[in-house]
Design a protein that fits this description.
Elements: H1 11-21, H2 29-45, H3 50-56, H4 66-78, E1 92-95, E2 98-101, H5 102-115
Antiparallel strand pairs: 1-2
Keywords: Hydrolase
InterPro entries: Q_salvage
Catalytic activity: queuosine 5'-phosphate + H2O = queuine + D-ribose 5-phosphate
Length: 117
Amino acid sequence: MDTRDSNVLLPRESAKLIANNSKDVKIHPEGVKKIANHMYECAKKNTYNLQSWRTEHELNPQSQDESALDWVFVADTLNFSFWSDDESQKYRIKFNGKEYTGYWSWCAALNRALKNR
């Protein structure tokens, strides 16, 4: 029995809705294919897993609990907001004595907000 709410879109349907209706968000099929192939190769070789994700970058959550799930949800929902078309105009933030740009600036801002709550 399927207990999902019929009004909830799954990721593929959500992406299609956004891509078809958004003026500012674009999905580049070649980029999707590239990352899908990369992740497939990582899965085959077992070179990318939960442990490697946690240790890949100091800003990734280190716990395996509900707060980590919440962090991933928020980070992945808003991460496109910090990409720049102009490489010389990247969003920058300092956190724990280090400067971050792009996606990592968003992660640093999120972590700083959580640290200061």
